[in-house]
Amino acid sequence: MPPQRRINIRQDVTPNKRTLRNGVATRMAGPWPLACVMAIACVAVIGASWGRADDDSLLLADPADAATPANDDPLLNMARPNRSKEAEKDTDKKNADGQSDSQAEDPHLQLWTENCYPSAETCRKCHPKQYDEWSISSHAYAAVSPMFQRFEQAMTELTQGTVGSFCVRCHSPVQTQLELPRDLSLLEAPAVVREGITCIACHRVNEHYGRSHGDRRIEPGNIHAPVNGGHGGHGLRDALAQANKLKLKTSPDQKGPGQPIHASANFFSPITNSDVCVSCHQVAVHPGLWLEIVHAQYRSGPAEAKGISCQDCHMGSVPGKPLGYEQGHAAVLNDKPFGTPRKHSNHTFWGPGYSIAHPGIFPHHPKARKIAPRDWLAFDVNAGWGTKGFEDRVDESMVFPEPWSTVDDRIDGRKIIDENIARVHEKRSSSAITLESAIKVSDPIFYHPPRSGRPLHVGFRIDNISEGHNAPTGSLGAQPQLWLNAVLIDPKGRRVWETGYLDRQGDLADLHSVDVARGHVPRDAELFNLQTKFLINNIRGTDREVSLPLNFSLDQLVFLRPGAVPVSVLNHPPLIRMEAHSIPPLDHRIANYTIPPTALKTPGPYRLSVRMRSRTEPIYFMKLIGATPDMIRRMNANMIDINQRSHTFWVR
């Protein structure tokens, strides 16, 4: 075991004092309760004992470790392949003793972190509806996303660590504030860290930070500490007036039965409008590129001019549309809804994303927390563990890892898995509705009558009918992809022409396709793809698309650093720029195609089928950062199709 770090515990920390941990400067601002400082000390000490790089399942795998068993989970296969012989001996010894490799969460660590960063699970007791909505949201997915974990590790390695905490402070703000060491696996971190943008990430921030690139301070404190919201705390004051009757506890000193509750709630203006979103949804990376620009698009669009907020579309009653809010109770006290129904903001945070994580890890499930995250990754979902069909075939020769050694354990685990899979499908359905609310594809536009043996010029008008921001938007440069897939079927039912097709790797057949480069698949010259790309020119030559733009020194030392020329002059850093293809609000683009005469040989009825396809990550980018085959399979399996339709026309 590595030596433990020596931590000096003080009752307060000087405001804005910068500390150095693992080579990265971080900021601890304002006075901290003693219990919270002890929590940070505990995390640092335990992290030092846990943090073996060779045992961290969230570190980037070596590219040579590409062959992953089909039933393995991406999170489980993120360990470094070059493990030391001593570590392998330790693992072999554990397995020989019949013990699990996984490490359960330390109860003392959970207790200490709960006293200053309460988990969403704690909030669920009074706010079950809000918890259920949040638990499937992209906010809840932010930290446990296998793609985020891979990408963040890849960026750290590619930039020699100079990227710092840039990615983590948006995706896991509690992790940043606890200053968890990088070699601590997320699987062993406190539960509140795995919750990503959890309840307190918004409701315990009491200052408007603006464009701070995710650097916001969560006010530490236990469940009784004040919270901030958009209603002013009237309902809470009514409840506290009946504290004895409702058996509410407003202090940790109150013993006996009762429901813990906040002692006060404050009105926080930024949380009622789009200001609260800007710190993470308007972000510039170190070279000077605006990677997240959705807030700027919103500010310059018609929605902001009409007074429509981000919340109106992303937390309203209808995904993606400002059509008002549901009515609901703010809290449930003693298993009964309390107070008068009021405006309810949906905490699913409607958006186009979807999960590729193991269903035992995400969505967040109260019963799933009884099992260590690493043990969930050992549960083989694809093999059918816990289903009747599988368990009927189990014989004595089959060996299962703990805690899944008995049939009852596997059946109980399967119930949680099935519930989570159903909720993932629910979220994916809402993602499709959100996309449908923004994108409209017209009927085909024929520029001349179709004739056999002649080329056919046809087009589709794609409209962004949303008033909020461009479509698509989000983290630009590598993601997301939104493209048009069109197929022509001849009178004999044969597919004679297609655009927007995928190669054998699952990539679009564009300049990033390996199959296109090797001549296995023809390039899709007429591909209509709304994905924004990075362009570089490497001092000389024309622009070319790249997956990640990192500035290189002449001696090939890669690291992120500010550009020498002010970005305000060029509007982008030297040698790097963004090539935007997205559609602004209430605008449109025309996708024009020329169908060759070889596809129109036979007169008769032809069917032209079209759909827009959405994928949160391109496959070439996933391979670049070392994604496992199972991650790629899940990304393609969950691809979202919208505006699906077919049109029949006659060729004379």
From TrEMBL:
Keyword Transmembrane belongs to the record: yes
Region feature (Disordered): 65-107
Pfam family, one: Cytochrome_C554
Domain Cytochrome c-552/4: 122-203
Sequence ranges of Basic and acidic residues compositional bias: 83-96
UniProt entry keywords in alphabetical sequence: Membrane, Transmembrane, Transmembrane helix
Residue ranges crossing the lipid bilayer per the database entry: 31-50
Keyword Transmembrane helix: yes
Low complexity: compositionally biased ranges: 65-76
Protein's name according to its UniProt entry: Cytochrome c-552/4 domain-containing protein
